[in-house]
Amino acid sequence: MAIGHVEAQAADPMVVSSPQLRVGVVGAGAWAGEIHVPVLCAHPGVSLVGIWNHNPQRAKALAEAYSTTAFDSYDAMLEAVDVVSFAVPPDAQPALAQKAALSGRHLLLEKPIAFSLADGEALVDFIAKANVASIVFFTRRFEAEVAKELAAIAEARNWQGATARFFSGAMLPGTPYTNSVWRQRRGALWDIGPHALSVLLPILGNVVAVEAKRQEPKITLLRLTHVNGGQSDVALSFHAEPAAQGESYCFRSGSQTATVDVRPARRRGAFHHAVDALITAAKTGAPHSCDVRFGLRVLQILVAAESSLQRGVAVPVVA
Predict the structure, then answer these.
(1) Facing residues of 162 across strands?
(2) Coil, strand, or helix at residue 174?
(3) Comparing 21-140+268-290 with 143-263+301-316, is the CATH topology the same?
(4) Class of the CATH domain delimited by 143-263+301-316
């Protein structure tokens, strides 16, 4: 499932003297409190040093709940850590991550890595020049059972296309994400779309063109043309009622099909595996298939899909 790597640059990787990587979390919202902080606190391979957030009160409350430090400044946290784990909106992540990379810190990033191609491309360049490790947390790629099933499908044959459906209830009233401004503005395409793309690309290859439309205000449809000429169709919604929720992928090659019905995400377990992957990449210097360059490939498709929604035509994907 290897897709795209950041090549090593002249700079030497950061040398970590302690047996555990020291990690700091940026962000103190629902995702930080639900996933990042508890997993990092429990992971045997890292030591959670503390939390920084632009809202000091929120950082302090979350830090106190896990008996860790709330840093007064981002610079102070960078001085104390080997790794920065980001749980912030996509528009805030690039500048913070660039600064961390320039400080020689390894990066555990969230998807999408940015909203604009310029920010995404700059982040890739900064990370490559700093020669630090990066992982983008595409949940499905780090769920052991799902990843194993997808790897077996990828090896079975040359698949010609796929149908994907990802309907979640993330934005139904009462969930912790209904107050997320960026999710409200950007929609399911940018929130759960990256997860679907992270499953499709390793099996069908990169996307060269995308046509996007809205079936109704709360459902986004994508038709993806892959590099080998295959096509995949994706339906996305994060306003689905419980009876309609689910995530599935059906790959096809002639009369042959292979279907993956994905259970509700075991997010903490997946994040634990993402931390494992970052530890390995940081200590060996070997890039992971879900590094920042793969994150950029996904971003390129999202930007093209957004353009297609606005223009009403198929749009080539900038590579």
Answers:
(1) 232, 251
(2) coil
(3) no
(4) alpha beta
Alpha-carbon distance of 217 to 214, in angstroms, equals: 6
Phi-psi region of 158 (alpha: psi -120 to 50; beta: other; left: phi over 0): beta
149 close to 208: Cβ distance less than 8 angstroms: no
CATH architecture of 21-140+268-290: 3-Layer(aba) Sandwich (3.40)
Rounded distance between C-alpha atoms, residue 3 and residue 294, angstroms: 6
- Cα separation, 50 vs 74, in Å, equals 11
Q: How far apart are CA 238 and CA 175, in angstroms?
A: 11
User: In the numeric block, which tokens belong to residue 219?
Assistant: 């459902």
In eight-state DSSP terms, residue 178 is T
> pLDDT, tens digit, for every residue of 257-266?
999 999 877 8
CA 298/CA 309 separation, integer angstroms? 17
Domain spans of the chain, in order of start: 21-140+268-290, 143-263+301-316
Gap between the Cα atoms of 76 and 84, Å rounded? 12
Sequence-separated (6 or more) residues with CB below 8 Å from residue 137: 108, 109, 110, 111, 270, 271, 274, 290
Give pTM, 2 decimals: 0.92
Tell me the C-alpha distance between 316 and 319, whole Å.
9
Least confident of 6-15, 74-83, 131-140, 293-302: 6-15
Nearest to 226 by CA among 249, 195, 205, 250: 205
